[in-house]
Structures are given as structure tokens and as C-alpha cells.
């Protein structure tokens, strides 16, 4: 069923009443919790339930690189990712514009001090997929793609991702195969299992690499949903030409990129 964009609102697509943790909780405990729940964002709140910020996979990567290890610290010692307040009746389009322009997480408040949900890029993409829109991705694709060797250490890979401000790298495997290592792999596969950061990246990367030819936003979104991934590698004539993320696709939907009606 195809829906009109104007009929889509945050309240219908948000993750309702998300779990939050106190700032006195340790970073290690939060990593374990995020891995068990399969989530990439964790809200940090006071005992009264007032949000202080959001712990993200990027925040965890930063701690690893700056401390050269997983530090034994609590959340109140970390600079958390900021958030913006939105109401349940704000449109999906407006929420997408806000998440891109502010580069912040969006928490949903029914009243000034009553948080009722969180709306993530994945939630927004789920809504956009129900519309007739099919934006062109040319202006949002990351065409600078970074590679590491399969024998590169986890820590050196994290350092590269932190320095380049990227959430993933292509892993050049054996026998000309390719894989990918992401911030989520760091949290779920490495840190949750207390893997030594000097180990090689190969065992903790995702193989084989899921790729697609250059496609429209709605097609990329469908592939991501099918394979449960947040990054899709694009190929041109058999060669890697770029990477598109969930956030990139949201950017295409909310921007003035050329739109193709997909009836």
C-alpha cells in the first residue's frame, strides 16, 4: 500500500518508550546491554527520567581510540551525543530534515518533560519506503571508500575510522574477496566478547560483502531491509564505486534531490 508523504507522522513510526540508563552505569555494562538488545543508541537519563544525552556506537569508538583500550569508566565521564526534542505529530519529512541538519538524535516528547519515544534514521526509512518517492542517490553517496587489509588490527582499523569520521571500512580479504567492518561490529562482535584489540580484523568483519549496482533510494532501502544492514556498497562495472548508508538515504528523501514517482 502506497501512502502519501503528508500522511506520515513520527508517532506512528517511532520506537515507543525506549529503555534508558543512569549516568552512573559503566560503559562496559552499556556495551553488553546494547549488544544483547541489538541497538545502536542508548538514552542516558536522570533518576527522574530526564534525558541527558544518547550513547552511540560512534561515542564508543571515540573512547576506544582516545584511551587506546576500552576504558573502565561510567557514562557520566563521557561526552554524550546531543538530542533534539520533537513531538509525535511532527511529520516524517520534518523529522528527516531535522536529523540531517542538526546531526543529532531525535527524542519524542508528548509533553515538555515527558519522553515517549525515539525516532531513528531506520525508523524514518521504514516510513519513507511506504511512499511513492524514489530519490536519486548521486548527491549523497560516499564515493571515498577506505580499505584495510584482512590482517590489519582491530585497533588500527578503529583509529582509521575515527580519524576519517566514517562508520565502516572495506576489508580486503584473501582470494580477492571483500568484507566490511563497522562500528556495530566493534560493539557487538569485539567489545561485547572482550576480544583483544590487537587481533586481526578478518574474523570480526562481515563476509561476503553485499553489493548492488547504482540504484534509486527506495531500491537501496529495500535491499538494506532484506539483509538487515545499514550500509550498502555500490558497484560500477564490477568495481566498488561508493557506499550509501541509511542516513544518506534519509538525506536524499528530505533534500531537493530529483524524485522519481514509484507507482
CATH topology of the largest domain: CBS-domain
Uncertain segments are none
- N-to-C span: 10 Å
Number of β-strand runs: 15
- Helicity level: 25-40%
Order of helices and strands: EEHEEHEHEEHEEHEEHEHEEHE
Biggest beta sheet attributes: 4 strands, mixed
Q: Which architecture of the largest domain does the CATH hierarchy give at level 2?
A: Roll
Using the CA coordinates, give the radius of gyration.
19 Å
Number of helical runs?
8
**Strand order across the biggest sheet?**
1-7-6-5
Question: Strand fraction band?
Answer: 25-35%
Quickly list its features.
CBS domain; 8 helices; CBS-domain; alpha/beta; 263 residues; 15 strands
What does this structure look like?
It is built from eight helices and 15 strands. It is an alpha/beta fold and 263 residues long. It has two domains: 117 residues, CBS-domain (Roll); 115 residues, CBS-domain, CATH 3.10.580. The strands form five sheets. It has a four-stranded mixed sheet. Helix 2 packs across helix 6, helix 3 runs antiparallel to helix 4 and helix 4 crosses helix 8. It holds the Pfam family CBS. InterPro entries: CBS_dom, CBS_dom_sf, Diverse_CBS-Domain. Keywords: CBS domain.
Amino acid at each position: 500500500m502506497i501512502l502519501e508523504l503528508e500522511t506520515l507522522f513520527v508517532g506512528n513510526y517511532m520506537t515507543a518508550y525506549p529503555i534508558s540508563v543512569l549516568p552512573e552505569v559503566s560503559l562496559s555494562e552499556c556495551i553488553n546491554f546494547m549488544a544483547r538488545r541489538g541497538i545502536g543508541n542508548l538514552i542516558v537519563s536522570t533518576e527522574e527520567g530526564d534525558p541527558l544525552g544518547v550513547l552511540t556506537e560512534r561515542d564508543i569508538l571515540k573512547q576506544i581510540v582516545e584511551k587506546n583500550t576500552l576504558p573502565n569508566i561510567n557514562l557520566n565521564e563521557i561526552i554524550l551525543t546531543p538530542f533534539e526534542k520533537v513531538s509525535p505529530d511532527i511529520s516524517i519529512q520534518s523529522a528527516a530534515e531535522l536529523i540531517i541538519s542538526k546531526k543529532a538524535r531525535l527524542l519524542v516528547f508528548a509533553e515538555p518533560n515527558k519522553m515517549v519515544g525515539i525516532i531513528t534514521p531506520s525508523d524514518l526509512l521504514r516510513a519513507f519506503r511506504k511512499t511513492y518517492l524514489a530519490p536519486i542517490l548521486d548527491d549523497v553517496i560516499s564515493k571515498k571508500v577506505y580499505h584495510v587489509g584482512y590482517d590489519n588490527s582491530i585497533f588500527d582499523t578503529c583509529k582509521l575510522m575515527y580519524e576519517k569520521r566514517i562508520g565502516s571500512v572495506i576489508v580486503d580479504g584473501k582470494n580477492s574477496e571483500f568484507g566490511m567492518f563497522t562500528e556495530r561490529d566493534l560493539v557487538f562482535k569485539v567489545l561485547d566478547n572482550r576480544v583483544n584489540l590487537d587481533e586481526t580484523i578478518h574474523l570480526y568483519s562481515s563476509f561476503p560483502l553485499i553489493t548492488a549496482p547504482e540504484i534509486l533510494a527506495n531500491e537501496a532501502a529495500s535491499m538494506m531491509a532484506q539483509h538487515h544492514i545499514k550500509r550498502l556498497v555500490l558497484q560500477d562495472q564490477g568495481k566498488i564505486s561508493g557506499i550509501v548508508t541509511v542516513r544518506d538515504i534519509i538525506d536524499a528523501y528530505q533534500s531537493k534531490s530529483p524524485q522519481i514517482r514509484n507507482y
